[in-house]
User: Fold this.
Amino acid sequence: MRKVAMLAAALALVAAPAGAYKLVAHGARVAVAKSEMTIDPPIDWNRQQSRPGRNAEAWTLDGIPLNEVTFYGGIEGGKALFKEVDRKNKPLPVFKSTMLTPDVVQLFEASYRIAGGSSLFEVGAVEPAEFAGHKGFRFRYTFTLEGEEVKRLGEGTGAVVGRKLWLITYEAPAIHYFDHNLADYRALVASARIPGPQVTVE
Amino acid sequence: MGSRLIAALAALLLVIPGVALARIKADETFVFPAGKPVRIIFFRPDVKVGSLGVGSVEEPNADWTAAAREKLSAQVAANQKAAGNEIVFLPEQEGDNAQVVADYQALFRVVAGAIAQHKMFPGASLPTKAERFDWTLGPGAAKLGEIGGGDYALFVSTHDAYGTAGRKVAQLLFAGMFGGFIPAGIHSSYAALVDLRSGNIVWFNIDPGSGGDVRTDEGATKRIGQLLNKFPTAAPRAAEPAPAPAQ
Assistant:
């Protein structure tokens, strides 16, 4: 009988919407990821209502599996990028405010391997880049999700400012989609604004 | 990164019967260009047939799957011949061509999952695409046309899991004791036509409660007949009979 109850619960799960989306209209600056980061989108986007993390938010044009932009808004020290998937057995690594660019990229990779179930994850080029008027970084990555054969490419741009991590990532299938919407992602990054570092007077 | 959960849910949407809330709205105005022969490359269909136990654990059955793939392919050929479309079966490829075909088949599965998720569920509709059906594999899909020698590609996917005897007993018990419903099995299928010059999906149909036992000739005929019911034809379809005038 327990199995029957589990089946009923599983059916109830799939009978609910997989995720609702709301319009992000172009031409109006919006706050993202429950944070002080704001974006001025040049085109309309769809915002996924369920959040991948407490201070994260995902947008898409054609569906999350086809083009996904994720905003990480001011991740504080001691916090993970995503919601925990298996805190007891596979806890997610956490951000530390003293992290340098290579550490942040490593944190991102380790988080994906756990939360995304992606063992085929490779980081490509990592380079300095400006992010919201601050010195930051940009990196490329590739991965294939478990149970799929589609190779995806990704790009992340961000900075550690005010002891918090601010990051915007973009990922899409390598065939057609990644190149097709890369400029749309970069336009979002170019419009990003974040608060400046807080100055503490001792 | 949300891809994994979304993809899993989209895959479930494709196989769980009775959860569809809306019909797929493809571009029903699509017609093949007039005055030119139409060659449609038919890709090896994704066919999965197995059994489903009480705990919803699915066991694939290789013999059923192989038989169903053969019967369904034969029915697609017969169906398209009757519709006046020329079908070219894509032979097994080797080397780079095999990789190109595998890559595009994998991409198609992801795009089909996105269509199923966002077009079947009003609650998961994308606001920017609510009134449009503009899904694509990208212009690089032209390579498939060069490999297979055709202008269009037809993809067919079916997934069937037949309930075991134990599951049927549980179904009756659950219905009798609680008035609840356990699906007898999984029967789902979808098909798509891709214009290989643009990569655009110009026709798409999904049938989450597919009929016809694909393990039999008769069932395969029914399944393909339902799935390709409104498939575009090279020749114009016969006009619907005019309604009888009111007395």
Observations:
- Chain A touches chain B through 54 residues (CB under 8 Å).
- Chain A has three helices and ten strands.
- Helices of chain A lie at 2-15, 101-115, 177-191.
- Chain A has a mean pLDDT of 88.
